[in-house]
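[step 3/7] inverse_fold.run input=structure_tokens len=519
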């Protein structure tokens, strides 16, 4: 055989199958196709090899990408690095035979031989169950995977498929007025009822959104990215499961609610609010009695008769209680103790639980009490680039630095209709909500009528999908509050718009959502 590498026929056949097949591809087929199309470029770390040592085994025929005779071992590795499809080498020193592999040449994939072979693998790329160093090593090859304990596995919000890929897992929720981009269309079926349309999406592993019109049911591989401006169709989107960006084993879970696994000391209510915000959480706004007893058993809340804070207050307006997750509450629907709330001395604007029957009592916010932080997930805006429609004053980056110290201050020479604060999340995310943490004792920071949009474009436009419209005052100084999107929305850029005059102040902003990977 000549020095020239011989491309194996099975790979040629595989590429032809990829080009003409409408069925789901295996991760290896998808990886090969993306390389061939130029869609995927290898990262710098993928141009190095890791030594796997000597083994009495060689590559089976179906893994051999090319065979080269009479080369030294360094040249064998160099040949692999020069071919993006090559993921490893097997080298036989006795006759200087070099085999290039389409997969990592791990021992359990080898055919036994009497002679030893020297194995090496390309770094920076890993399939499921293969060794890895970073999350990027895995998800570049298998979307919705991550590196956990140095091995590639599916993310906690994804299921493993029979083809050894990963697909997102979650629950379809209504997305009124929203729609996905046509470029992400998986397929379109003839008109069916809404239940059947949703079922079609649930049965399609790659479906992240579904739209029902008068004449069709359309399934999409991406989420809701735009607003329709009308109600001529119905849409649903897959709300991904679990706390975004945080592995469940790092948290506590009681009755479906995730908690930060930190025992907090007694603090006043505003300090408690900021303590949780610094850890990407909120003071637990309360829930079932079973959850309360579970938290007590875990040592995160004190047992009766000692009281503890819940994320609930009427600081903005007496009698109008707002939870730490932004939900407005009616006092008549809450489990108050007898003769509560009474706002004694006109000073009681925060809320504690103070009995074994899980009953509420309004209290002075300056009391020192225990509390527990409900986890929101990873702050995907932390340290990300940010800018505003005006550039005079303190920079917008103050709002994404995670320090909770200084607000974003901007001003303009002329009165404007609105001012826009944009945060670049770096890649497509399914945004589920955001948290405001007010660092300054200035009421103007928390002005009414704030709209938060998510977009795939760095500049706002009319088709941006609305995450949340806040028509009331957000919060008071030194406080933090979370606001969920009306439904999960997808995009790379978050635009915070606010009616503004000559000057605008904005708070620390945290954004929570799942990164979206090409399936």
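[step 3/7] decode complete -> sequence:
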């Amino acid at each position: 055989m000549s020095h020239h590498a011989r491309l194996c026929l099975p790979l040629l056949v595989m590429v032809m199958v990829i080009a003409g097949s409408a069925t789901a591809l295996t991760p290896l087929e998808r990886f090969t196709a993306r390389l061939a199309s130029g869609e995927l470029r290898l990262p710098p770390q993928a141009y190095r090899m890791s030594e796997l040592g000597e083994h009495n085994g060689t590559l089976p025929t179906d893994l051999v990408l090319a065979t080269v005779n009479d080369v030294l071992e360094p040249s064998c590795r160099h040949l692999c690095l020069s071919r993006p499809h090559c993921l490893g080498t097997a080298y036989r020193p006795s006759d200087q035979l070099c085999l290039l592999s389409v997969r990592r040449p791990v021992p359990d994939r080898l055919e036994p031989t009497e002679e030893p072979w020297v194995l090496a693998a390309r770094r920076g790329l890993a399939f499921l169950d293969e060794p890895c160093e970073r999350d990027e090593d895995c998800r570049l090859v298998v979307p919705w995977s991550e590196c956990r304990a140095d091995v590639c596995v599916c993310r906690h919000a994804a299921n493993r498929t029979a083809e050894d890929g990963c697909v997102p897992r979650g629950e379809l929720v209504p997305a009124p007025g929203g729609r996905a981009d046509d470029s992400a269309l998986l397929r379109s079926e003839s008109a069916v009822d809404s239940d059947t349309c949703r079922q079609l999406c649930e049965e399609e592993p790659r479906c992240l959104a579904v739209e029902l019109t008068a004449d069709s049911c359309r399934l999409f591989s991406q989420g809701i990215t735009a607003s329709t401006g009308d109600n001529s169709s119905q849409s649903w989107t897959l709300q991904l499961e679990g706390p975004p960006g945080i592995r469940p084993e790092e948290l506590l879970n009681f009755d479906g609610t995730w908690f930060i696994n930190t025992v907090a000391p007694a603090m006043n209510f505003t300090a408690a609010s900021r303590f949780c915000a610094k850890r990407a959480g909120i003071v637990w706004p309360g829930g079932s009695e079973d959850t309360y007893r579970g938290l007590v058993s875990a040592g995160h809340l004190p047992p009766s008769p000692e009281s503890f804070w819940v994320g609930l207050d009427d600081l903005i307006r007496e009698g109008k209680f707002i939870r730490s997750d932004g939900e407005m509450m009616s006092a008549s629907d809450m489990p108050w103790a007898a003769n509560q709330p009474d706002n004694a001395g006109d000073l009681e604007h925060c809320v504690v639980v103070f009995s074994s029957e899980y009953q509420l009592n309004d209290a002075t916010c300056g009391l020192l009490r225990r509390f527990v932080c409900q986890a929101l997930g990873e702050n995907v805006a932390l340290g990300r680039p940010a800018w505003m429609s005006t550039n005079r004053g303190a920079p917008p980056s103050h709002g994404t630095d995670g320090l909770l110290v200084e607000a974003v201050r901007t001003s303009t020479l002329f009165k404007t209709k609105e001012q826009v604060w944009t945060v670049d999340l770096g890649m497509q995310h399914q945004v589920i909500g955001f948290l405001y943490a007010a660092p300054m004792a200035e009421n103007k920071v928390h002005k009414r009528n704030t709209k938060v949009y998510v977009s795939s474009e760095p500049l706002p436009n009319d088709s941006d999908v609305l995450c949340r419209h806040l028509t009331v005052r957000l919060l008071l100084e030194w406080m933090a509050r979370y606001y969920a999107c009306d439904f999960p929305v997808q995009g790379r850029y978050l635009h915070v718009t606010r009616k503004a005059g000559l000057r605008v102040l904005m708070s620390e902003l945290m954004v929570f959502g799942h990164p979206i990977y090409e399936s």
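[step 4/7] annotate
Residues 9-20 form the longest helix (12 residues).
Residues 364 and 401 are 31 Å apart (CA to CA).
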